[in-house]
Amino acid sequence: MRGIEVVRNERKVLKLHNYFVIYAGVALRSFTGGKNVIRKARQGEHTTLTSISFHSKSHWEYPESYMQVWQDELTITPEYLESHLVYVFEEDGRVVAYYSLVELLYDQEFSCVTLQQGVWLDHMFVLPCKMGQGIGRELFEHCLAVLKHNGSESLLVLADPNAAGFYEKMGCTYVEDYPSTIEGRTTPHLEYRLTAVEPA
Q1: Of 150, 176, 130, whose CA–CA distance to 28 is shortest?
Q2: By C-alpha distance, which of 93, 134, 133 is closest to 1?
Q3: CA–CA gap between residue 64 and residue 13 (Å, rounded)
């Protein structure tokens, strides 16, 4: 991590589907050097972020039928930007990646799967042409800094199977496989512990 500046205290309303929660956050700006910066997403950038979502997901050469199932999930709306904590990676004035967080105040059932209480990484996408350049690592480290400033104990992740290795390299621990929205497919659930677990 190459320098974190606390900008201001603010309260964020985060949402997962139709469930709203209040997230008391410390907004951070991460300076990566040169003209690159990690900053809060701005209203009006939803189209750019949606494009990044689809291009990044398509990098794994999923069939069009899968992409259709994921269309709503991958689409970022102005309402999403208002209700989620979203940060973008801007390179030379161009947004090339982003991540978003959501906090569940209690366990929730979604598509026959129980998502546990806690802070979840809702999205993290990097344009394919920018993959392998350390942008994902910088976004993840920025995400952890945000959570640490807010006293979170862990970060929960439902990862694309192709991205599970990245999260494990970043220190996440595999927990179990969850059923996917695609029949016959599973999604790995991982966790990053921000605080040490007390021995039993």
Answers
A1: 150
A2: 134
A3: 33
Residue 92 falls in which region: left (phi positive, over 0), alpha (psi -120 to 50) or beta: left
> Residue 99's closest CA among 161, 142, 37?
142
User: Reduced to 3 states, what is the DSSP secondary structure of residue 163?
Assistant: helix
pLDDT, tens digit (0-9, with 9 covering 90-100), for 108-130: 877 667 788 899 999 999 999 99
DSSP-assigned beta bridge partners for residue 85: 101
Distance CA 43, CA 61 (A): 30
Bridge partners (DSSP) of residue 73 are none
Tell me the per-residue pLDDT of 18-55, one tens digit each, with 9 for 90 and over. 233 333 333 444 445 567 999 999 999 999 999 999 99
Q: Which residue type occupies 15?
A: K
Q: What is the identity of the amino acid at 9? A: N
pTM to 2 decimals?
Answer: 0.80
Q: Which long-range contacts (CB under 8 A, 24 or more apart) does 183-190 make?
A: 186/161, 187/158, 187/159, 187/160, 187/161, 188/158, 188/159, 188/161, 188/164, 189/156, 189/157, 189/158, 189/159, 190/156, 190/157, 190/159, 190/164
CA dihedral sign of residues 64, 65, 66, 70: positive
Task: Write the CB contacts of 176 (distance below 8 Å, at least 6 apart in sequence).
Answer: 188, 189
Strand 94-104, strand 85-91: pairing: antiparallel
